[in-house]
Design a protein that fits this description.
Structural class: alpha/beta
Number of helices: 3
Strand order of the largest sheet: 4-3-2-5-6
Distance between the termini: 86 Å
Mean pLDDT: 80
Order of helices and strands: HEEEEHEHEE
Strand content: 15-25%
Radius of gyration: 29 Å
Length: about 140
Protein backbone atom coordinates (compact mmCIF):
# COMPACT_ATOMS: atom_id res chain seq x y z
CA UNK A 1 0.00 0.00 0.00
CA UNK A 2 2.01 2.82 -1.18
CA UNK A 3 -0.87 5.13 -1.95
CA UNK A 4 -1.27 8.85 -1.45
CA UNK A 5 -2.17 8.43 2.21
CA UNK A 6 0.85 6.38 3.06
CA UNK A 7 3.58 8.53 1.51
CA UNK A 8 6.14 10.18 3.66
CA UNK A 9 6.89 13.83 3.04
CA UNK A 10 10.13 15.41 4.11
CA UNK A 11 9.66 17.43 7.28
CA UNK A 12 10.00 21.18 6.93
CA UNK A 13 11.98 22.99 9.54
CA UNK A 14 9.94 25.59 11.43
CA UNK A 15 11.09 29.16 10.98
CA UNK A 16 10.07 32.62 12.17
CA UNK A 17 9.40 35.25 9.55
CA UNK A 18 11.27 38.30 10.90
CA UNK A 19 10.21 40.69 8.16
CA UNK A 20 7.36 42.10 10.26
CA UNK A 21 9.64 42.28 13.31
CA UNK A 22 12.16 44.36 11.37
CA UNK A 23 9.37 46.74 10.33
CA UNK A 24 8.38 47.20 13.96
CA UNK A 25 11.99 47.87 14.95
CA UNK A 26 12.35 50.51 12.23
CA UNK A 27 9.14 52.19 13.38
CA UNK A 28 10.42 52.25 16.97
CA UNK A 29 13.73 53.71 15.82
CA UNK A 30 11.99 56.42 13.79
CA UNK A 31 9.72 57.26 16.73
CA UNK A 32 12.73 57.53 19.05
CA UNK A 33 14.59 59.83 16.66
CA UNK A 34 11.58 62.06 16.03
CA UNK A 35 10.56 62.37 19.68
CA UNK A 36 14.06 62.93 21.07
CA UNK A 37 15.40 66.39 21.66
CA UNK A 38 19.09 66.97 21.37
CA UNK A 39 19.67 70.06 23.47
CA UNK A 40 22.85 71.04 25.19
CA UNK A 41 22.37 70.99 28.95
CA UNK A 42 24.71 72.77 31.28
CA UNK A 43 25.89 70.97 34.37
CA UNK A 44 24.74 73.56 36.91
CA UNK A 45 22.13 72.69 39.50
CA UNK A 46 19.64 75.57 39.51
CA UNK A 47 16.37 75.28 41.40
CA UNK A 48 13.88 77.63 39.77
CA UNK A 49 11.28 79.39 41.91
CA UNK A 50 7.61 78.49 41.45
CA UNK A 51 4.87 80.68 39.98
CA UNK A 52 1.18 79.87 39.65
CA UNK A 53 0.85 81.99 36.49
CA UNK A 54 3.78 80.42 34.64
CA UNK A 55 3.35 79.76 30.91
CA UNK A 56 5.28 77.54 28.52
CA UNK A 57 7.48 79.61 26.19
CA UNK A 58 9.89 78.82 23.41
CA UNK A 59 13.37 78.12 24.71
CA UNK A 60 16.34 80.04 23.32
CA UNK A 61 19.97 79.14 23.55
CA UNK A 62 21.01 82.49 25.07
CA UNK A 63 20.82 81.77 28.77
CA UNK A 64 22.37 83.55 31.71
CA UNK A 65 22.58 81.15 34.62
CA UNK A 66 23.14 82.33 38.18
CA UNK A 67 24.07 79.61 40.64
CA UNK A 68 23.22 79.46 44.32
CA UNK A 69 26.75 80.67 45.08
CA UNK A 70 26.22 83.74 42.85
CA UNK A 71 28.37 82.67 39.90
CA UNK A 72 27.38 83.73 36.37
CA UNK A 73 27.36 81.24 33.47
CA UNK A 74 26.85 82.25 29.84
CA UNK A 75 27.71 80.57 26.56
CA UNK A 76 28.68 77.27 28.15
CA UNK A 77 31.12 78.53 30.76
CA UNK A 78 31.56 80.58 33.89
CA UNK A 79 31.97 84.33 33.32
CA UNK A 80 32.41 87.38 35.49
CA UNK A 81 30.28 90.51 35.12
CA UNK A 82 32.57 92.16 32.56
CA UNK A 83 32.81 89.02 30.41
CA UNK A 84 29.02 88.74 30.58
CA UNK A 85 28.71 92.33 29.41
CA UNK A 86 31.07 91.75 26.45
CA UNK A 87 29.36 88.49 25.48
CA UNK A 88 25.92 90.10 25.56
CA UNK A 89 27.18 93.07 23.56
CA UNK A 90 28.53 90.75 20.85
CA UNK A 91 25.35 88.66 20.84
CA UNK A 92 23.05 91.67 20.56
CA UNK A 93 25.23 93.22 17.86
CA UNK A 94 24.53 90.14 15.70
CA UNK A 95 20.84 89.81 16.67
CA UNK A 96 19.29 92.84 18.40
CA UNK A 97 16.00 90.97 18.92
CA UNK A 98 17.62 87.95 20.63
CA UNK A 99 15.72 86.63 23.63
CA UNK A 100 17.88 86.36 26.72
CA UNK A 101 16.76 83.87 29.35
CA UNK A 102 17.81 84.61 32.91
CA UNK A 103 17.78 81.46 35.04
CA UNK A 104 18.66 82.02 38.66
CA UNK A 105 18.57 79.60 41.56
CA UNK A 106 15.82 80.48 44.00
CA UNK A 107 18.47 80.83 46.73
CA UNK A 108 20.76 83.04 44.60
CA UNK A 109 21.65 86.52 45.83
CA UNK A 110 18.95 88.89 44.57
CA UNK A 111 21.58 91.57 43.96
CA UNK A 112 23.35 89.29 41.46
CA UNK A 113 20.07 88.69 39.62
CA UNK A 114 19.34 92.43 39.43
CA UNK A 115 22.91 93.12 38.21
CA UNK A 116 22.52 90.51 35.44
CA UNK A 117 19.20 92.08 34.42
CA UNK A 118 20.81 95.53 34.45
CA UNK A 119 23.76 94.37 32.32
CA UNK A 120 21.39 92.81 29.78
CA UNK A 121 19.30 95.99 29.57
CA UNK A 122 22.36 98.26 29.31
CA UNK A 123 23.65 96.23 26.38
CA UNK A 124 20.33 96.51 24.55
CA UNK A 125 18.62 93.26 25.53
CA UNK A 126 14.95 94.19 25.36
CA UNK A 127 13.66 90.60 25.41
CA UNK A 128 14.60 89.37 28.86
CA UNK A 129 12.77 86.24 30.05
CA UNK A 130 12.80 84.81 33.57
CA UNK A 131 11.57 81.19 33.66
CA UNK A 132 9.89 79.55 36.65
CA UNK A 133 8.49 76.15 37.53
CA UNK A 134 4.72 75.80 37.31
CA UNK A 135 3.36 75.33 40.82
CA UNK A 136 -0.09 74.20 39.66
CA UNK A 137 -3.33 74.96 41.40
CA UNK A 138 -3.66 73.71 44.94
Amino acid sequence: MSGAFNSRRPRRRPYINITSLIDVMFLLLIFLLVSSTFRQQYGIDVTLPEARTAEVQDAASHEILISREGRYYFGGGEVNEEELRVSLRNLLKEDPQAAIILRADEDADFGKVVRAMDIARQEGGMRLEIPTRYAGSE
